[in-house]
Structure formats: C-alpha cells, structure tokens
Amino acid sequence: MTRSTVSGASARSRARRSRALGGLVFLGPGLTYLLVLLLIPLALLLSFTVFRRGRFGGVVYEVTGKNFARLLDPLYLEIVLGSLKLATIATLVALLIGYPTAYLIAQLPRKWKTIALVAIVLPFWTNFLIRIYAWIILLSGPGLVNSTLLDLGLIDEPLELLYNQGTIVTGLVYSYLPLMVLPLYAAIEKLDPQLREASANLGASPARTFASVTLPLTLPGVLTGCLFVFVPSFGNFVIPELLGGGRSIMVGNLIRDQFLKARDWPFGSTLALALIAVLIVLLLLQAWSARRA
C-alpha cells in the first residue's frame, strides 16, 4: 500500500469522525432531553409496577404482580371504558365540526386563509386553565348563557349546564378542535382541484364526488386529526375535574389520584404505563391505516 493511499484512508477516517462528532453536538441537546425527561421517568415507572404500596404510601421494594391484576378490576375497567366513550364522542364531534371548517378555509382566497388559520390557533395563545374557567363562567347558573336565555324568555329558571358529561365533551372539543382542523386543512389544501372537476364532468353528484374523491384522498388527515384529539382527550384530567365537577372520573383523574391522594405509586405507575401502551397501539394503527390509505 502506497503512502498516498494510507494518507487518503486516514483523511477519510478523520472526516468520518469529524462528521460523527458534529452530529453528536447537534443531537446532544435533544438526546439529553429525551433521556432525562422521557426515558428515565419511564424506566422509573416501569420499575415501580412490580413493587407494592407501603402501609402509609410510597413504594415497598417487594416484588409482586398484583398491580397488573388490579387493572382487570371492574371498577377500573368501568373508568377506562367511560374515558374511551367520552374521548371517542369528543373526537367524532370535533371531526364533524372540523372537516367542514377546514374545507371552507381551504376554499378561501389566500389572504383570508391566513386570517382564518390565525383565528383557529388563537385560543392556544391563552392559558389553558383560563379558557376552562371561562367556560365555567359562561355555563354557570348566573352565567351569560342562562342570563341570555332568561332574558329572551326561553326558560323560566337557570339550566344546569355544568358538571355533566355533555359539558366535559364540550370542553374537550373546544380545547382540541384546532388539532383536528389543522391536519384536515393540510390534507384538503393538497388536493388537486382537477380531480373533483373530472368527477363532476363524469356526472358524479357533489355527494358522490366527496365520498369517492375528496374523503379517500384526505383520509390520512382525518386519521391524524382524530389521533391528535383522541389521545389528549383520553388522558385529560383537568376538564373532567373543573367542568365535570369530579362526578365523571377519567383515566387521567384516576392516575393523578393514585399518585397524589392514595399515594399508591406502584399502581399509579401501572395505570400510566397501561395508558401509554394503549396510545402506542393507537399510533401504530394510525400509521398502518395511513399507509393503506
């Protein structure tokens, strides 16, 4: 091997090491963030699941499998199923509102599209709790909704609009509707208008064009939007606590209570990991459905 060949190989090796080091420099902050705030907490949760609760709370480091058996308790299964029901209803309502909204925004002139999209994301610029408390003020007995209905003579006494499952669904839809509209808008915006024109020229009605052309081509956006709404709705505990008055317990409330009230960290960790597992399955199903679509 000649000296030039050796020096060339050495230079290439140094270049590879330099590129690898540069990559680590840029990836370092993100990897550190994932390690410290995601992987280590998940590892701690996983380790707590096989231990038992102490007499006065906390963790006793004695291996047991009772935490996983408790997941099948009818009481907890009822809470999980109730959370699934509320999250599913909120997702469907958000889809029914979000799809026409995204479709109309996509048809606007470019100037008005920007204004409409800013209006959609504008609520996210306000603190989440402030927005939820605003709903409490609106829907309370002397609130704006009841006062308006009383002034119009439509009701004789204030309606009980707070502290029920309908109010929880309303809060979930209001909080996460932008997460449905934005991916739907992105999917609809990419549609080629000529496809719909060709469908109309072939004699298809607007409903047939929507079912055969528009909906199938925007299905990935539909799935993404549904996932974006369902996942935070399923694990939410603030809205059921404030708008539901604590009468409807969801999975998020159950996990919070296990850690902060019952101080049963092992079972709380088991519930949290079970919730994460369900969400991972949903993500995989969404990815599979999007590929098929």
Automatic annotation (TrEMBL):
The lineage of its organism: Bacteria, Bacillati, Actinomycetota, Actinomycetes, Streptosporangiales. InterPro entries: MetI-like, MetI-like_sf. Keywords: Cell membrane, Membrane, Transmembrane, Transmembrane helix, Transport. Belongs to the binding-protein-dependent transport system permease family. CysTW subfamily. It is a multi-pass membrane protein. Pfam families: BPD_transp_1 (PF00528). The chain crosses the membrane at residues 21-46, 79-105, 117-141, 161-188, 209-231, 267-288. CDD domains: TM_PBP2. It comes from the Bacteria. Residues 80-288 form the ABC transmembrane type-1 domain. It is found in: Cell membrane. PROSITE patterns: ABC_TM1. This is ABC transporter permease.
